[in-house]
Design a protein that fits this description.
By secondary structure, the chain is an alpha/beta fold. The protein has 2 domains: 1-47, no CATH class; 55-340, Rossmann fold. Helix content is 37%, strand content 16%. It has helices at residues 3-11, 17-31, 38-46, 55-58, 97-103, 121-137, 161-183, 200-211, 270-273, 287-290, 294-300, 313-316, 323-326, 329-334, 336-340; strands at 59-64, 82-87, 91-95, 110-114, 145-150, 192-197, 215-216, 219-220, 231-236, 260-265, 307-311. A 9-stranded mixed beta sheet has the order 3-2-1-5-4-6-9-10-11, sandwiched between helices. Helix 1 (3-11) packs antiparallel against helix 2, helix 1 (3-11) packs across helix 3 and helix 7 packs across helix 8 (200-211).
Length: 353
């Protein structure tokens, strides 16, 4: 039997349809078109890895918001997560949020990675594996647990690209609600690193704002709060306006929810250079291109000390996509203190553009 047919048979009736789509896409991308024998395919797609290693060392979780409402209409949306578990040397299998919660080891940091726009299922699954290995290469002997949050960010590229970017930006902000709720499923003893790329940083900024009691597109979260949480944040190629973290701006409460924020700034990012063209005369330059300006730091006051602009222009060059980041071991080491939570919080950069 073909690999695709085996997966369809194994997943029939196994939960949300998105799981089947995810598994089909994931396995197709991981195997690169190679077919396994029937027994091998069934084992790889369904069975759990038998290993004595902790779950944090043997694999990671993928949480999808594709089945969650993407139109809020000023009402409290319902978080309907679809969950996959990836086991090294075995592959993906369907899971549930309850298993994820039970499988997280108290006290071990949890890194929640959020991708940007125009990422399909196959790319999300492929890049989640690369991200996990990348972070582990920068571990310096420490341990962490990873959750890869994927949201419906894919849209075909067409002549109305500007409108699609605006639409996906709004959708990213809405998915911040689900990220805020996801953090409440993490054991309180686990510090959290929120790592985002491009529009994924808008998901995170929205979540941090909600965790501090703010509202996004007219909606507040009724119970998700960051009080007492140890949260650190890493932005890469951040596609938010550079002043949105300032007090009384769009995500003005976000910095209240995080101990510190590392902004991987690239002054040559081609996508960020045309970022403001999506809303001419309205949009500001993006955070990932400029970092915090002098005026931003003046408005933030002491809060600005939480933000460290880390210039990666010479490392990344004229590129935007996430693989350019996770293919650099030096950047895995640069984000180490934010992901693995050694005792000392990295000092903030006082300089700005």
């Amino acid at each position: 039997m073909m690999l695709r047919e085996l997966l369809e048979a194994n997943l029939r009736g196994a939960g949300p349809r998105v799981l089947a789509v995810a598994l089909l896409s994931c396995v197709a991308s991981v195997t690169r078109g190679e077919e396994l024998s029937g027994a091998e395919a069934a084992q790889a797609s369904v069975n759990v890895a038998v290993t004595d290693a902790p779950l944090s060392d043997s694999g990671f979780w993928i949480v999808s918001t594709h089945d969650s409402p993407q139109s809020f209409d000023h009402a409290r949306p319902r978080f309907c997560p679809a969950v996959l578990r990836y086991e090294q040397c075995v592959g993906y299998r369907p899971s549930r949020i309850a298993e994820l919660c039970a499988g997280l080891e108290p006290g071990i940091p949890v890194c929640i990675m959020v991708h940007g726009s125009f990422v399909d299922w196959a790319s999300a699954c492929r890049e989640s594996i690369s991200t996990w290995h990348w972070l582990r290469r920068g571990s310096m002997g420490r341990r962490m647990q990873m959750i890869y949050l994927t949201w419906p960010s894919y849209s075909p590229l067409g002549p109305m690209l500007q409108l699609e970017v605006n639409k996906l930006g709004r959708r990213a902000a809405r998915n911040g609600y689900y990220l805020a709720e996801l953090t409440q499923h993490v054991p309180p003893e686990c510090p959290i690193c929120l790592l985002g790329h491009s529009h994924g940083t808008r998901v995170i900024a929205s979540a941090l704002h909600l965790l501090a009691g703010g509202s996004v597109q007219g909606v507040c979260h009724p119970y998700a709060r960051a009080a007492g949480r140890r949260i650190r944040t890493v932005f890469a190629a951040s596609a938010i306006d550079h002043d949105w973290l300032n007090p009384s701006h769009r995500y003005g409460r976000a910095l209240c929810s995080t101990q510190c924020l590392l902004n991987l700034q690239n002054r040559r990012d081609p996508a960020l250079r045309i970022y403001s063209c999506r809303l001419p005369l309205i949009a500001k330059q993006p955070f990932g291109l400029t970092g915090l300006t002098f005026r931003d730091r003046r408005q933030l006051g002491a809060w600005g000390q939480k933000v460290n602009d880390y210039d990666v222009t010479e490392v990344i060059g004229a590129a935007h996509l996430w693989p350019y980041y996770f293919n650099r071991i030096s950047l895995a080491c640069a984000v180490h203190n934010y992901v693995y939570f050694p005792e000392r919080i990295p000092p903030s950069a006082a300089s700005s553009n």
